[in-house]
Each structure stands twice: as structure tokens, then as C-alpha cells.
Amino acid sequence: MLEVSDLHVSYGKIEAVRGVGLSVRPGEITLVLGANGAGKSTTLKAIAGLVPPLRGSVTLDGAETTGQAPHRLVRRGLALVPEGRRVFGPLSVAENLRLGGYTAGKRCEETLARVYDTFPILAERRNGAAGLLSGGEQQMLAFGRALMSQPKVVLMDEPSMGLAPVVVDSILAKVRQMADEGIGVLMVEQNAEAGLDVTDQVVAMARGEVVYTGASGDARNHASVLRAFLGEAALAGPGA
Ligand code: ATP
To answer: Would you state the pLDDT for residue 232?
Structure first.
């Protein structure tokens, strides 16, 4: 449903993304792995319309979306859970969620009820300020806010960042649950261990390029994947 091909993005002279191709299917999680600076976030931002691609194409259900503004992409079924959650701290949990549902119109309340079913902690805290939630709860809120637009595809930038492993596991379980309900998920992670068990496909990036694409089960033993998230030195051996 989401197809990216030959995507290039530059910041001035820095070629951050060079010829990236990947796909996300309904009901599946595609995990993009790579070390710091590999170009993962830039890939996600270009798909979400936050940075303009130099060339290449992004299509959603066969229709071209390359370079469209984020609010148009939301209406077409693409929702972003940004790095660092970006919840509105002074607003209540419910207000944050309603902001994500502005495209849902009359179905906003119905969708809100579904999000509360999925994340009971958000229902419990609905009237409290979002800024008072723990990091894990804020990640749930950012995810719930994305779901409020009833997306076909959710883009997630480093959901595990700064969270304890047990919290990461519970968030990834929710991501898996949403995928099992038919949503396609594209997730960027530096922390490979956090994602490999729940994902379907792995795309590993290094220096702006895709160096591996394959099923998650096969990725763990693949040298280029290890290199992508551990760094070149990981496979060079002692003294290298
Ligand atoms: P991280 O996990 O640290 O976010 P990443 O794999 O997501 O890393 P990007 O953030 O996409 O990598 O960065 C790719 C390259 O582009 C890096 O060399 C980075 O320094 C550069 N870069 C990223 N954002 C900008 C920007 N706004 N202006 C200039 N260069 C940038």
C-alpha cells in the first residue's frame, strides 16, 4: 500500500538519503534499522511531507503522494508518530487526542472510544494534563493521537527512545495489535532488539542507502543488518 522508490533527500551538500526503496503492506510492520545518522528519520520525514525529496516517488494505494503537505497526507491515510512524542503538555489527554481526530469529523467520538479501549491508561487519565504522563504513557498518547485520524499507514520515529525495556515491550505489543487489525506500520529504530521480534520486514540503512531488505526472522543473522545498527567496527574484529 505504501511504496517508496529511489528516494533522494539532501540538506544542502549532505546527501542524507540516497536511492531508498521500501514498501509497507496492510497488516504488516516494516522496521527501518540503522546507526545514528544513517538517514532513517530523513526517510520518514520525506514520506510524511516534512522535508522535500530531491527525487524519487512515494505512493499510497497506487496514488502519487510525493512531496505533498503533511495535512493532505493525513487526509489520505498517513499518520506520523514523531520522534520525542511531541504531545501538548498543558492540554489534557482528551484534548491531545481530539487534535489528532480533526479529520475524523462526526466519527471523532467513536474513534476516541476505540482509542480508549486500546489504551485504557489514556481513558483513566483523560482529564489530566498530558505533560504529567510518564514517557511511556506519552508514547501511547502520541500513538493514540495518530490513530485518531483513522490511518491506513502509521509512521513511527524511534518509539523506544528513552523508555525502559518493559515499557518498550508494551508499546510494541500495541503496535503489533494495530497492525493485526490491518494498519500498515513503518517504524524507524536505532534499538534493533526493540523491534525485531514484532516486525514482519526489516530494511537496514547505512550512510543514506538501503543495505538489506528481508523478513525479520532472517535479519538477525545477517551481517549487513548487524553492521547497520552496531556500526562498521562490530564485524571488523579485535584490533581493527
Ligand atoms: P538518528 O537515529 O540519529 O536520528 P538517522 O538515521 O535518523 O539518525 P538522519 O537524522 O536522517 O539519520 O540524518 C541523516 C544525515 O542527515 C546525517 O548526516 C545528519 O547529520 C543529516 N541531517 C539530518 N537532519 C539535518 C538537517 N536538518 N540539516 C542538515 N543535516 C541534517
So the answer is: 52
